[in-house]
Amino acid sequence: MQIPSKYDPNTVEDKWYDYWMQHNYFYSVVDKREPYTIVIPPPNVTGVLHMGHMLNNTIQDVLIRRARLQGKNACWVPGTDHASIATEAKVVAKLKDQGIYKNDLTREEFLKHAWEWKKEYGGIILEQLKKLGASCDWKRTAFTMDDALSESVIKVFVDLYNKGLIYRGYRMVNWDPEAKTTLSDEEVIYEERQASLYYLQYNIVGSDEKVTIATTRPETILGDTAICINPNDERFTHLKGKKAIVPLCNREIPIIEDEYVDVEFGTGCLKVTPAHDENDKVLGDKHNLDVIDIFNDDATLNSYGLHYEGKDRFVVRDEIAKELQEKGFLVKTEIYTNKVGTSERTKVVIEPRLSDQWFLKMEQLAKPAIEAVLGKNKEINLFPKKFENTYRHWMENIRDWNISRQLWWGQQIPAYYYGDGKEDFVVAETPEEALILAKEKAQNTSLTISDLKQDPDVLDTWFSSWLWPMSVFDGIRNPDNEEINYYYPTNDLVTGPDILFFWVARMIIAGYEYKDQRPFENVYLTGLVRDKQRRKMSKSLGNSPDALKLIQDFGADGVRVGLLLSSAAGNDLLFDEDLCQQGKGFANKIWNTFRLIKGWAIDENIEQPETAKIGLAWYNAKFNKVLLEIEDHFSKYRLSDALMAIYKLITDDFSSWLLEIVKPAYQQPIDAKTYAAVITVLENNLKILHPFMPFISEEIWHHIIERTPQDALIIAKYPEASLENVNQELITNFEFATDVVSGIRTIRKNKNISFKDAIELAVVNNENVTKNFDKLIQKLTNVSKITYVDDKVEGSASFRIKSNEYFVPISLETVDVEAEIIKLKTELKRAEGFLTGIQKKLSNERFVNNAPEQVIALERKKESDTLAKIETIKNSLISLQ
Fold this sequence. Notes:
Blueprint: H1 9-22, E1 35-39, H2 51-69, E2 73-77, E3 79-80, H3 84-97, H4 107-121, H5 124-132, E4 142-143, H6 147-162, E5 166-176, E6 181-183, E7 188-204, E8 210-215, E9 226-229, E10 243-245, E11 252-257, E12 269-272, H7 278-287, H8 313-326, E13 330-343, E14 351-360, H9 363-374, E15 381-383, H10 387-396, E16 401-402, E17 404-405, E18 415-417, E19 425-427, H11 431-442, E20 453-454, E21 458-459, H12 462-465, H13 468-471, H14 482-487, E22 492-495, H15 500-514, E23 522-525, E24 529-530, H16 547-554, H17 556-564, E25 573-574, H18 577-598, E26 602-603, H19 610-635, H20 639-662, E27 670-671, H21 672-689, H22 694-704, H23 728-750, E28 759-764, H24 774-781, E29 783-788, E30 796-801, E31 804-809, H25 817-842, H26 845-850, H27 853-880
Parallel strand pairs: 1-2, 3-4, 9-11, 15-23, 22-23, 24-25, 26-27, 28-29
Antiparallel strand pairs: 5-6, 5-14, 7-8, 7-10, 7-13, 9-12, 10-11, 14-16, 17-21, 18-19, 18-20, 28-31, 30-31
Helix pairs in contact: 1-22, 3-4, 9-10, 9-15, 16-17, 17-18, 18-20, 19-20, 19-21, 19-23, 20-21, 21-22, 23-24, 25-27
């Protein structure tokens, strides 16, 4: 097979992905192997690939490919989330462009359009993930509104209702006026915004006195039903029992007393609007106040809004402030900074609103999930551990979950109403079951299915995805089936910390409630992808690159490396396209290294040189040492460190050292034994590289020799790390030898001595270093002779490694003595300055007493190395003067 001179990722990647798909390498069925399971955090069906997806799914692919190589039954379940709010908004907008309005459609007609939209756009992101190399089991692709998954959701709702954990309540909720639905507390993002604080005067009934209140929302005065004062505030005790008049609408409202009022804030008087503020609602319930809702569901004012009816709340804010000022009610305004709740999905300012909603009691359900992550017998690990505190805070302060949404796209709540009373409903999985229950509850055997009216609301999307690790294996409908028993609990979950509570905690809760088991063992929380200015990447800022264009420009392997090299667990990634260029450069380096090896002619009759034996023995030891380090990095989810270890192993140890050691002389063949050993080394390198760079590794694997599908790299056997094969003495001695080689090469460079010109080396071996590496040093530096001496050699360029001194005899006739002296004096001055800094630090008792031992040891090593360097420079100066 001809090897192209240049590596073309675009051609290679499509070829190998098609090959993997054709041979079902991603497909998993139950067998006797150890399972390794990951469920994808299902991206929104509305989504397209962005940098966060790229990072998250690259990490998952690394984990799943490594497990596959380790001989495990690797199963990565892909799928999408129906994203009720986002998808419904997309469908509504598309229909609006066609002149069709949701309100003019029946539910069935609208859902038909929604399913058509899903069919056209819903699979885009999964197809894009294939370009990244994601080795998901695509035959298992799930969607949270598939029939089986929807049935699971309904089954769980009914079960929790029957357990008394789901209830219907008239509560203050977060209302999204654009999506026209309620949101859970976790879907509200609080932003600091600058606003105006309006000081308004209310007349007191039966007197000329006025009270002043401060508000940031003057439009809500139309819903005021009381003014509240603190009973301990002497300024207002005379107002107890009196009434005030609401400006503009001239309604009389009581003045009540409650210690809730902060006497230091504003004026000490508080307007109470129970329909539009959670705390006001508590006061309203306590004092039996009227509730006046002034808003329509789109946050325009309703009939209570007087002449502002039909106008948007923010338009009314400006207009009513102007009217209040003109009529003498507005005393003054001040600039005020407060936190404003906005919808995570639509970004609009949310409205607190009273509404009948469905809630799930969370306090008892959360207890096993708290114990699983934070208890003594910890069953679930968060990486990094710092997120345990976040988890603790959320879970120990958990509130009941508002699970209903005023939408059509989603699982419709299985509550069926048969009468006009608030309690005239039943909950059942099917209308037929509901009818039986309704007849029994209503004691009316004449009821028919047509008499039942199903609740129009749908369930919160997270109420689907919290079952994901179970529902994708049909573990809710068929709790003892073969697949759920084999694949569950899953192994690793990779996701962002922003949905630690939304999704991760809730999956843990559901896992213990329905399987009495954890849903996964480890949770790897990635950082956010930010730009070089530390800004979160977003379409609105225009700082998010086109993910597919990055793959086209740098290759999927290059992009994967670029993302992972700078992505420590839990830390934000500062993305720069230069990182992808580095990944592309690494791929090219690997390719060119492979072409070098394949270009060598092989001679079966040549004996293996001693230098090759030493080099290969060293690399085997070093490979095993690095492999153990990689295993440790994986166990701690330090994938960035694991990749960097592989990067250094291949670029430095393999390409720069081993191949230099074993490569034959110019236009000479290599011995067959060494060549075979180098190929084995190369294959092992490709195996550990494959999870990170699957495409180029598979391409090279098949260029080495012709392979059958059974011999593909994707299912090869991963090398097993062995401490017994780590010859540390050999590694240490080799590193010493490479320092010698570097020292000789530096002299050649500084003295302009061509590599073609052989030189001699004299060694004062104070360290008693083994001479086993002399042949290797000679080959790599073209040293014709190494002599061991007792004292320095005059007329030589020298360097020092620990207490060993190395001398390369130099003819002064070939050296510009004056220039050399100037250069050495400059180096000496720099080294002495560096030494002063180190010694100053080491003489600082505070530093020495407080710094970690390894830091002190490093500084002392710097000191000894610098002293040795200074002595070497001085000796060189003496020899020149």
